[in-house]
């Protein structure tokens, strides 16, 4: 009778942690998981609006076999990525997946490390998604860490008398934890790649452009990055509105007296301008960006991220970034019938795109116009929020960075949702096509070769500092296309020409 292997135990700075094996140790594909390890104390009570505080040490072996509490509360509903909420107060925790638990025999002998930051618009999301399991990266010799952070107002809102950008400080604390402890799990703290999708991709770019983060990682991959860069005045205005809705003073004590759940209920209203225009929310997003997220505070973020990258911050670190072709076009599908007879130019005017810019944009998107006005509107929102960021960052880095910048597009269209939509690339990047929920977005037979290509490129960056195609930084415009039509080259000379009018 086969014996179960002994659970792996490793010693980190606060104490010992016990994980569990997936597969038989020593066999290909086997790895160990350590879940819910605190990197900071629970952000409650006096610590609610404080910077993260290191965890208290423990003496007994601590079980790390279940995901820790998440900052996301309640049922998130039907989401593109399954990201469960887990109740509890100790929401600042990490999950580690490793093929070789235990320190290396020699200094510098550890494996490269991937640190993943989840998305969710900075107001939702969870590191406990089955899609973020590091099993495939472990198979390819990469230790994987997923991190949690405070969300919404508690993480990013302006609180007078409290540290700014508390969610950003959580990212920094998690990376410091990785630096100090990852060798115990077989990882090399000198070879850390940060990666994330959507708000997580925005987090990656924020950290890349932040001086305080520079010693903590060595390369970066941003999928569909949604930058925050919330302006200071907007942060203060939203806090005043939120406090007024909650019936308290706009102070640290006043806001701390309101339960977290109540602030979560009110934060959307506080960030939304009252209007009878049904498109007001969309135009506000396009013009002002996300309501909650990293704010330009003059401390951690001294200037907007693209400006920081243009000045050379993070320029010594290899970067890969890209987007799906139609991040949000599925949202406008429901309006396709109503928009069938509406000219695309008129519809874009409702979103305040006018004049030469509108003409240039429509001229560059002839193929999308053939799919109808709803498709044009969806592509335009995708371009403003996500795809134009790719070009702006790549061009900023080309002017200042010493390390390479690689750009890609994910063009394979979902057989169930019609478009190459937001989040569709994530299970291919993680090579987790058999994970729960993937079929809903990628169909019953997602192409294995596409996962091999995209995941392989990720491993190439993490392990070798090069994803494997011509860099934009040496050949501006050069773009790797994942999952494009058979008639399209794998690398296009100007893969984001469609968005240049918006940059």
UniProtKB/TrEMBL annotation:
Pfam family of the protein (one): COesterase
Keyword Hydrolase: yes
Record keywords: Hydrolase
Enzyme Commission number(s) of this protein: 3.1.1.-
Domain Carboxylesterase type B: 7-432
Top EC class, one word: hydrolase
Keyword hit for Hydrolase: yes
Entry's family note: Belongs to the type-B carboxylesterase/lipase family.
Protein name in the entry: Carboxylic ester hydrolase
């Amino acid at each position: 009778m086969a014996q179960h292997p002994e659970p792996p135990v490793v010693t980190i700075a606060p104490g010992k942690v016990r994980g569990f094996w997936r597969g038989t140790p020593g066999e290909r594909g086997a790895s160990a998981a350590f879940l819910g390890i605190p990197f900071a104390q629970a952000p409650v009570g006096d610590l609610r609006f404080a910077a993260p505080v290191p965890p208290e040490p423990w003496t007994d072996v601590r079980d790390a076999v279940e995901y820790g509490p998440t900052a996301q509360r309640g049922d998130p509903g039907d989401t593109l990525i399954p990201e469960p909420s887990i109740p509890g107060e100790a929401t600042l925790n990490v999950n580690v997946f490793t093929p070789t638990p235990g320190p290396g025999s020699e200094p510098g002998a550890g494996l490269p490390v991937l640190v993943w930051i989840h998305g969710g618009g900075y107001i939702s999301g969870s590191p406990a998604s089955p899609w973020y399991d590091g099993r495939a990266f472990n198979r390819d010799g990469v230790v994987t860490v997923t991190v949690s952070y405070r969300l919404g107002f508690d993480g990013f809102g302006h609180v007078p008398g409290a540290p700014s950008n508390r969610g950003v400080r959580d990212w920094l604390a998690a990376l410091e934890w990785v630096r100090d402890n990852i060798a115990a799990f077989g990882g090399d703290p000198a070879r850390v790649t940060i990666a994330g999708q959507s708000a997580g991709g925005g987090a990656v770019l924020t950290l890349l452009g932040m001086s305080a983060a520079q010693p903590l990682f060595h390369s970066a991959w941003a999928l569909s990055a949604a930058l925050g860069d919330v302006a200071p005045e907007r942060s203060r205005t939203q806090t005043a509105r939120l406090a007024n809705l909650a019936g308290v003073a706009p102070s640290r004590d006043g806001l701390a007296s309101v339960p977290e759940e109540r602030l979560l209920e009110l934060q959307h209203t506080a960030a939304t301008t009252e209007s009878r225009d049904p498109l007001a929310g969309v135009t506000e997003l396009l013009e002002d960006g996300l309501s909650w997220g990293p704010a330009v505070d003059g401390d951690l973020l001294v200037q907007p991220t693209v400006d920081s990258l243009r000045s050379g911050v993070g320029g010594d670190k290899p970067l890969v970034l890209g987007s799906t072709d139609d991040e949000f076009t599925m949202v406008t599908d429901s309006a396709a019938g109503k928009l069938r007879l509406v000219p695309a130019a008129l519809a874009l005017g409702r979103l305040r795109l006018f004049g030469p810019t509108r003409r240039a944009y429509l001229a560059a998107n002839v193929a999308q116009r053939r799919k109808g006005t709803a498709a044009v509107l969806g592509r335009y929102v995708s371009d403003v929020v996500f795809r134009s960021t790719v070009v702006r960052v790549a061009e900023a880095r080309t002017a200042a960075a010493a390390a390479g910048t690689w750009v890609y597009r994910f063009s394979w269209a979902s057989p169930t949702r019609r478009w190459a939509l937001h989040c569709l690339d994530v299970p291919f990047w993680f090579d987790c096509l058999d994970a729960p929920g993937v079929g809903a977005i990628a169909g019953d037979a997602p192409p294995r070769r596409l996962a091999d290509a995209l995941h392989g490129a990720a491993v190439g960056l993490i392990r070798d500092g090069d994803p494997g195609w011509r860099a934009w930084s040496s050949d501006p415009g050069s773009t790797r296309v994942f999952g494009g039509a058979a008639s399209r080259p794998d690398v296009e000379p100007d893969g984001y020409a469609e968005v240049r009018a918006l940059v």
